[in-house]
Amino acid sequence: MEEYVGALWHRLITDVADKRYPSEAVSLEQISKIAGILFRSWGGDSGLAVKSATATRHGAKRSLLQRIAGSNMKTELTWLDGETLNLPAIIDLFPQRDLNRDLYLWLIALAATHSEPALPWIQRNQRATQDVLERFPGLACRYQRLADAVLDMRPRPERLPHGEREQEEAIRAALLNPGSVERLPPARRPPQPVYLWLHPDPPASEPASGKSNDPQDHNAGDNIIKKEKDRRYQAERVDMPDSKDSFMMSFRAESILSWAEYIKVNRPTEEDDPPDDRPAEDLDRLSVAQDGKTAASRLKFDLDLPSAASDDRPLGDGILLPEWHYKKQLLQPAHCRLQPMLARGAEPLPLPAHLSATARRLRSQFAALTPSKVWLRGQFDGSELDLDACVQFSADRMGGLQAREQGLYKSHQYHDRDLACLLLADLSLSTDSYISDHERVIDVIRDTLFLFSEALSATGDRFALYGFSSLRRENIRFHILKEFERKYNDEIRGRIAAIKPGFYTRMGAAIRHASQLLVKQAATQKLLLILTDGKPNDLDQYEGRYGVEDTRVAIHEARQMGLRPFCVTIDEKGSNYLPHLFGISGYVVIRKPAELPRELPLLYAQLTR
Amino acid sequence: MRSLDLDLIHSFTKMPHMTDLPFYKPHGNELELFEHAFLRQLPLLIKGPTGCGKTRFVSYMAEKIGLPLYTVSCHDDLTASDLVGRHLIGDGVTYWNDGPLTRAVREGGICYLDEVVEARKDTTVVLHPLSDDRRILPIERTGEILSAPPEFMLVVSYNPGYQNFLKGMKPSTRQRFVSLRFDFPKPELEQQIVMGETGADTMLAKKLVNLANSLRTLKEHDLEEAASTRLLVYTATLILSGFDPVDACRAALVEPLTDDEETAEALMEIVYASFGK
Ligand SMILES: Nc1ncnc2c1ncn2[C@@H]1O[C@H](COP(=O)(O)OP(=O)(O)O)[C@@H](O)[C@H]1O
Ligand SMILES: [Mg+2]
Q1: CB neighbours of A356 closer than 8 A, spacing ≥ 6?
Q2: Between helices A164-176 and A140-153, what is the axis angle to 10°?
Q3: Predicted TM-score (pTM) of this structure
Q4: For residue A576, which residues of chain B lie inside 8 Å, CB to CB?
Q5: CB proximity A136 to B under 8 Å
Q6: Helices and strands in chain A, H and E counts
Q7: DSSP label at B184?
């Protein structure tokens, strides 16, 4: 009971102290799609994902109330790193919803305008403000409204001690007259956060090596990730300050506290905070695990390949493939080794009983897609006269009948389905996670492969099935399920039944190899279907942006070869990165994974109609 | 070959109507290429996104050279008979009726097949003997084999967006044409086009072109099609006729580009950023 009252009190007093307006709040989630579009159209990098930022410590003086409440130590500001546009998860600073929303838009415009990143913070933000106002004159009145509101909320300079007062005055001037302030006067503390500007001291991005931070990996251990937890935590790595600005130095020095220190000390300066059992979202630096996950899920990072005797049978010595390095903007030749392999001891099997009814229905639907040529009679248009109709027509006329309007042509109905399709399925470990009480992703993928094959073998379309996973660049496992030249039969079904989840998702290499197989087909239309449950990732640097960009280049190469790549995913967050990879009309997100087996064949019919 | 001039071209033609020339601002050397192709009897393929001026260019050239223009907008129900012609049944008799392609070959002129990839492949096969050095059009139905005169020119266009993949042009067809790639005009040029077409002033034209270019960066990632010059012309036309600029942008620029409400909302924010709210 005491705890409950305590929590209530905490909330109450936080509200008062922060002067936030939760009822007028706008959340990033509500506008994330718009945010992405605006960012890109205003010149931002289309490879960046939009995410909510963790709050970072700002270190400025807090009011007594705020001190009692233990709040207002952290503010969520906006910054960019190599992979992400970080925006506040919620903006509730202003009592008007419109203003809160406008602030989001303003921050996005600022972030999309790359103005002299080398300048000191105060100059950089004034310059960016000027640039935005010049490029988008329509934003001027919004800026005015926002600046007025923000100035209203800031501390009155005359009430501040010497030093802080000059600092505050400089910031006020810079907000009112962007471009007018040269430097920020030094003070004992950093100024109050400036909500209209970008983050003065963006947190370091995660260390690029060692741990994977792909949500997919955590997915495997823990299927449900709370949205809140999805925010990125400020990483432990702290770079040497590279700015000569003395203010920046002091600001950094204050924020170097590690999580451990933070927990132990928790009163960085003069104030007393109430005992802290606030949730982890309140901590800005987590050095243990990036998502605060247990050791169990991290154990997966150290998977070993199975011993040769128990592993699938490798065919040949492997195939060397290039990989795209987006930072260097070059294709690294022979960077990956892809190993085609066949399931060991997969017995021929009939179609699993639970699929037979659906399979039968699909087969009869798809039989309609088989190539055929039919003459349609009595058409209003066609390449031949329909003699019967003409004779009838003439006879009617001569007999004095009022001739009806009537089709007099025959048309040759063409079904030129000259088509080859390669289906490439992601078999990485993330497919081991459960989507319902009794089904894992891999089970859905298996059923999908079965039904897809059943449907396609009812048409004349040529198709092949492969699966892939990877463990670093030298082990890309490419599982042969059905080659183009093979008939779909019990042996193939046995191979499909034998697929199992393992390892990571080095998508680029798998796509490159699949493209080479597909392009050799004689068909005029070649469809490369990619079936996946998440982003590209692997243990080494193949995560985040690197993996996405390599995959994007592989897709582009496939298109250059005349293939049509299309991605089918069950990753709910797919819309965040898939347009960048496949284009807006090159992918589909299946919301209910359990429906994938039935959806995919229908989708195929639609794509190839 | 370089010193080609209009006189030479006009010796082919009936009457140049210089005054009736449609308004056309060239992007580069396309006028010259068209004239050379015409003189040397080469078929021409123009690729480019919709609304970037392909059709306007062809009608300008037809007028400039002084040739009749037969335009066919292709679609997937278009049959070879629609191009070549068919027997019609009249008062107790059947008679042959030339299609636009045949008419252009018989009488001399430009046959322009717009969006040619929309036509089924078996339809475009009739173009093959016309588009190589034989320059003939066999008409199966009548048993005729027409030889194209020097005044005949075949021009086709298409939009090579990859969403057209399944309909993409056969390489064997594509390789029969001299090809010209159009893209959206450079900003200054596009401003002049908007001004020339609508009478907009520099300020408005510049604003609209900037706006269009912001929207064009969204192609493929967020939008299937880029905002075309045509849409800019429509927008300017609405504004100049007194319609509210922001509403004009919504009607002629935003809504034609997307059906998705959230996307439209985002595009409107881009409009507000240029025109104010
Ligand atoms: N270079 C240009 N000169 C003049 N007008 C142009 C030009 N490019 C585009 N336009 C304008 O854009 C409109 C659309 O052009 P159009 O030729 O119909 O496009 P397309 O055939 O490529 O789809 C034209 O009606 C004209 O108003
Ligand atoms: Mg056109």
Answers
A1: none
A2: 160
A3: 0.67
A4: none
A5: yes
A6: 19, 19
A7: P
